Amino acid sequence: MISFSQVSKRFPGGFEALRDVTFTIEAGEMAFVTGHSGAGKSTLLKLIAAIETPSSGSVVVNGQNVGKMSRAAVPYLRRNVGLVFQDHKLLFNRTAFENVMLPLHIAGFEPTEGAKRVRAALDKVGLLNREKAFPVALSGGEQQRLCIARAIVNRPSILLADEPTGNLDANYAHDILEMFKSFNQVGVTIVIATPDPSAARDWNARLLTLDHGVLTP
Amino acid sequence: MRIWLMHHRQAAALVLRQFARAPVATFLTMLVIGVSLSLPTGLYSLLKNVNELARMARGEPQITLVLAANASSGAIDALQAHLQKRSDIAEIRFISRAQALQELNKNAGLGDITAGLEKNPLPDIFTIRPAHREVESIVRLQKELQALPKVDAALLDEAWVRRLEALLGLGQKAVLILAMLLGFALVAITGNTIRLQILSAREEIEVSKLIGATDPFVRRPFLYHGALQGLCGGLLAWAIVVATFQLLNGNVRILADLYSLDFHLTLPDARDILGLLLFAALLGWLGAFLSVGRHLREIEPH
After folding, report:
1. CB contact at 8 A, A68 and A22
2. Could you tell me where the DSSP H helices lie in B127-214?
3. At A104, which helix (H) or strand (E)?
4. Which residues in chain A have their CB less than 8 angstroms from residue B204's CB?
5. Contact between B215 and A72 using a beta-carbon 8 Å cutoff
6. Reported pTM
């Protein structure tokens, strides 16, 4: 469960990315956050993953107040939140397999048990035959899917995706969203930031619209 | 616990892979550390050798106790009993004033002069051979004997023992200062290589933090890197000292033969080597720790 109450985020320099935002996303829900570029979509996701802290108000994720969390507790929250980035943030000196292995390695999985999970995750995104490839050898869509595999390999209860289909053509984008839908069907809470609200209507999902940092009904 | 051990093993393996990936750069850094550490290590070993040499060249050290003129025979007996009980004295010999005068007459042919004296001007003395031969313990013994009742003076017959002691003290202090300065250098060198490591791994650190890596997890490979680098530097320092001493030993033997001494430079013993390696690894770790502490917080995901 993700709950924002009267959350504002001001950056040093005075820019106000979010103002007085209140909403709740229930566990197992699938939600889209839309709005123009700079409306505060990314900031909203970053607040959930404790990458940013709110200037005022409270962000509660799985019962924990993220803004008041100690530095040492943040990693354990993040292990339960899968992140999909528009720019993928893959490590280019590691193979696809090693990239997906990294979260399990950090969480302390046995290599053999971890390898099984990595292959399962790569299979889900259709990259099982590319496990030895380095990210440079993958297409943009494949890189995005690799990023998704890394986000779900730890079986998080929440999956956050920041414009996951931003650089992809329509067919590919559809596949990716289909994938998110299937994760949602097994109980994962999904929040997707996208400038295009049509997807939410297509999927009959919850829609949060931001306008200059304010949530519009 | 098992996870913790696994993380440590993996961090160590990662560092070894990093070393293998840039063998020349790694070796050069270790060599710099090795050369820095070889200076105080070599000097320390040399001092130990000089001390040994001094002991050999000096022969038997001896302390002469000059007794007070008014010491009664009872007091002298008591003193003798006390001296015999001490474990830091190997042997004592009593020379009475009468005996001394006799010898003086006999040996120096001063009979005419001494015969003219109204009374014997010589004191009773004990000559003492200390049980231990280290300069410090002899000097300590001398000081303690000096403080005994009815003892006028405890003379250490070789003034150069004191000079040597002072010189060795100076040398030891110099080694200590050198070790400290070069220790700082080691910390700085390690700190710098770790800083470069952190900068080149910036992306990796950022991504690791985004997917739930704790600070200790991120820090661990860098600490291993610093400690291992220091340890290898220490090993190189040891190798440098061994090689240098072997090179010098030929000349030292020739020199010792000229003085009819059986002497050669002995290499650092196991305890010294262990100390050196621990010192090097610890300082490497410290350099890495300081550097990681400084730079890791700067790398936060955005």
Report:
1. no
2. 135-146, 159-200, 202-210
3. helix A96-107
4. 91
5. yes
6. 0.72
